[in-house]
Amino acid sequence: MKTLNVNLGDRSYPIFIGQDLLDDAQLFSQFATSSASFIVTNTTVEPLYADRLEASLKANGQQVIRIVLPDGESFKTWETLQTIFTGLLESNADRKATIFALGGGVIGDMAGFAAASYMRGIKFVQIPTTLLSQVDSSVGGKTGINHPLGKNMIGAFYQPIAVIIDLKTLLTLPKRELAAGLAEVVKHGAIADHLFLDWIESNAAALNNYDLSCLEHVVVKSCEIKSAVVAQDEKESGVRAHLNFGHTFGHAIETGMGYGEWLHGEAVGCGMAIAAELSVQLGYLSLEDKNRLIRIIQTLHLPTKAPQWDTSKYLSYMSHDKKAESGQIKYIVLEELGQAKVQKVDDDLVISTLKVAGAI
Amino acid sequence: MKTLNVNLGDRSYPIFIGQDLLDDAQLFSQFATSSASFIVTNTTVEPLYADRLEASLKANGQQVIRIVLPDGESFKTWETLQTIFTGLLESNADRKATIFALGGGVIGDMAGFAAASYMRGIKFVQIPTTLLSQVDSSVGGKTGINHPLGKNMIGAFYQPIAVIIDLKTLLTLPKRELAAGLAEVVKHGAIADHLFLDWIESNAAALNNYDLSCLEHVVVKSCEIKSAVVAQDEKESGVRAHLNFGHTFGHAIETGMGYGEWLHGEAVGCGMAIAAELSVQLGYLSLEDKNRLIRIIQTLHLPTKAPQWDTSKYLSYMSHDKKAESGQIKYIVLEELGQAKVQKVDDDLVISTLKVAGAI
């Protein structure tokens, strides 16, 4: 088992990464409280892993209550969140209760926001079971739900007390979701570590093939890169924005297609291809490096061809992005592979980029 | 104009108290941002004060958008909160937008929670227009909404960037709401300052009569007492619990009657009478001091006679209180007038207290 630490002063927490951690009752002993433990999970993950987690908690004398949600991004809504609150209240959950978020990013985001808001804040532990959530969403304290008018518009910065990553849960992940997680892994290399990007390129086949030691490497590296960024800028007033590389275009694609049509990671893969093109248009990235990045994305079975829409549709979905300020969008571009920066860009250049990328 | 400060490190903020502050465009200049200003108010307060606030903001070049909610505790729900989010999104509110909560405690709690959750947190200014919100709810950062199974169960600790109290707004307050606000004023004296309690006793008639200089005194004193407590214990792990004096019984009464039947302050007035009786039963408070406190509450036209219910109904509503831990309720009792403490109490003694108080 490897242990990393997210350094956030009195909100610091450990990330445990290893195999079969779900059965490690000793590890869970530190989360035994005077109150009850709530497993928040979904109908897909529950039959796979909830019994093992429950056994580890019960071995520590915990009363365990399950709250099982429907599976999918389309359920990342207030209504589903309300079922968590109702479950907590019906079981008389008090301020000392702990929520264990067992599942992917949607579960982590919703259970985290529920923990942030229930009685104005109770403890929660992230137990991400998808690659996307292990390398990205479980670390950093972003929680929330979607609003009919925008993705992740309602939420909180709320840190878990720990992240427990059992790598073997990746073995039950559909290929498409594995690829979606690898999109964020590529992003970490692209914005912060060109050597890691080289490594991903060399080990793409093993990654596509669920090689656990390769997956461990990308999870550890991703958590390291992301924690370092979050420790510098918890609430995204500066460098944390780099983590949004590919996301402005990606969110537009996700929203425009309707939530759930494309997986988040797929939209981000495609968004990175467009953002790389924008970096070329701005004169930063070489054509060769852009093509290399796009090739890596493709090798991991991710789309790089954006849906074709009207210019106005793209711009309108992009302007709803949370990163927009006074209608002005801040783009994350690459100065070179492994080095990102924030930049305002004229609409004209964005439009010509979308044209070159074949999106309009 | 008097200025107090709530000392919370990098979340510190000023409280401005004076007359006609709504028209003080100079005061509002510090809240002019690069983005839009949103006035969140209700259908009762809007026609009274929104124009003046809007003028002061516009004088500083702000674009102003109003979000007008239905009035009343029964609307302190997710559905109403959602209309705030929809209003913000439809006007393309970005992360630099500021919410101005213009109204009583319900508006402040909902607008504050909306500010805490919109894009994971935007700025907000409290402009409380009721006595209850001026002396209590606008200070300290508790925000939230009700859940069908419990009051204030969903929310956040989220501090405003300022509280602006225009005392003259109290002149349009119905007598019943004035009295409800005075309940929290009495509470501040009872838990923290017996000399202030003496002063309230001596000036009860003037307070009942909307005397602005007397009202200024109780607002300033209350904000001082509450800010000092909040500065010591922002998230209620210790001394902040003292502010809940009268609230465990009060919440049970409020919930049992159905939200909105009794005003919050009325339930707290009655709850303080029961909590004082409990303090007597525990051997702390003299019978004389208890009777004096009850007399003060009555002089301010607040109920001190609790509704009569089954024991089980009282205990069940009380056990849903947020202050309960593992089913054990922590009571706030008075060691003497001006001095509170937290105490666990056996159900037997609670039941005999409810009997003596005529509640069961």
UniProtKB/TrEMBL annotation, chains A, B:
<feature type="binding site">
    <location>
        <position position="184"/>
    </location>
    <ligand>
        <name>Zn(2+)</name>
    </ligand>
</feature>
<dbReference type="InterPro" id="IPR030960">
    <property type="entry name" value="DHQS/DOIS_N"/>
</dbReference>
<dbReference type="InterPro" id="IPR016037">
    <property type="entry name" value="DHQ_synth_AroB"/>
</dbReference>
<feature type="binding site">
    <location>
        <begin position="129"/>
        <end position="130"/>
    </location>
    <ligand>
        <name>NAD(+)</name>
    </ligand>
</feature>
<feature type="binding site">
    <location>
        <begin position="105"/>
        <end position="109"/>
    </location>
    <ligand>
        <name>NAD(+)</name>
    </ligand>
</feature>
<feature type="domain" description="3-dehydroquinate synthase N-terminal">
    <location>
        <begin position="67"/>
        <end position="179"/>
    </location>
</feature>
<keyword id="KW-0520">NAD</keyword>
<keyword id="KW-0170">Cobalt</keyword>
<dbReference type="Pfam" id="PF24621">
    <property type="entry name" value="DHQS_C"/>
</dbReference>
<feature type="binding site">
    <location>
        <position position="151"/>
    </location>
    <ligand>
        <name>NAD(+)</name>
    </ligand>
</feature>
<comment type="similarity">
    <text>Belongs to the sugar phosphate cyclases superfamily. Dehydroquinate synthase family.</text>
</comment>
<protein>
    <recommendedName>
        <fullName>3-dehydroquinate synthase</fullName>
        <ecNumber>4.2.3.4</ecNumber>
    </recommendedName>
</protein>
<dbReference type="Pfam" id="PF01761">
    <property type="entry name" value="DHQ_synthase"/>
</dbReference>
<dbReference type="GO" id="GO:0005737">
    <property type="term" value="C:cytoplasm"/>
</dbReference>
<keyword id="KW-0456">Lyase</keyword>
<feature type="binding site">
    <location>
        <position position="247"/>
    </location>
    <ligand>
        <name>Zn(2+)</name>
    </ligand>
</feature>
<dbReference type="GO" id="GO:0003856">
    <property type="term" value="F:3-dehydroquinate synthase activity"/>
</dbReference>
<dbReference type="GO" id="GO:0009073">
    <property type="term" value="P:aromatic amino acid family biosynthetic process"/>
</dbReference>
<feature type="binding site">
    <location>
        <position position="264"/>
    </location>
    <ligand>
        <name>Zn(2+)</name>
    </ligand>
</feature>
<feature type="binding site">
    <location>
        <begin position="71"/>
        <end position="76"/>
    </location>
    <ligand>
        <name>NAD(+)</name>
    </ligand>
</feature>
<comment type="pathway">
    <text>Metabolic intermediate biosynthesis; chorismate biosynthesis; chorismate from D-erythrose 4-phosphate and phosphoenolpyruvate: step 2/7.</text>
</comment>
<keyword id="KW-0963">Cytoplasm</keyword>
<dbReference type="InterPro" id="IPR050071">
    <property type="entry name" value="Dehydroquinate_synthase"/>
</dbReference>
<feature type="binding site">
    <location>
        <begin position="169"/>
        <end position="172"/>
    </location>
    <ligand>
        <name>NAD(+)</name>
    </ligand>
</feature>
<dbReference type="GO" id="GO:0000166">
    <property type="term" value="F:nucleotide binding"/>
</dbReference>
<comment type="function">
    <text>Catalyzes the conversion of 3-deoxy-D-arabino-heptulosonate 7-phosphate (DAHP) to dehydroquinate (DHQ).</text>
</comment>
<feature type="domain" description="3-dehydroquinate synthase C-terminal">
    <location>
        <begin position="181"/>
        <end position="324"/>
    </location>
</feature>
<feature type="binding site">
    <location>
        <position position="142"/>
    </location>
    <ligand>
        <name>NAD(+)</name>
    </ligand>
</feature>
<dbReference type="GO" id="GO:0009423">
    <property type="term" value="P:chorismate biosynthetic process"/>
</dbReference>
<keyword id="KW-0057">Aromatic amino acid biosynthesis</keyword>
<keyword id="KW-0028">Amino-acid biosynthesis</keyword>
<dbReference type="GO" id="GO:0008652">
    <property type="term" value="P:amino acid biosynthetic process"/>
</dbReference>
<dbReference type="GO" id="GO:0046872">
    <property type="term" value="F:metal ion binding"/>
</dbReference>
<dbReference type="InterPro" id="IPR056179">
    <property type="entry name" value="DHQS_C"/>
</dbReference>
<dbReference type="InterPro" id="IPR030963">
    <property type="entry name" value="DHQ_synth_fam"/>
</dbReference>
<keyword id="KW-0862">Zinc</keyword>
<keyword id="KW-0547">Nucleotide-binding</keyword>
<keyword id="KW-0479">Metal-binding</keyword>
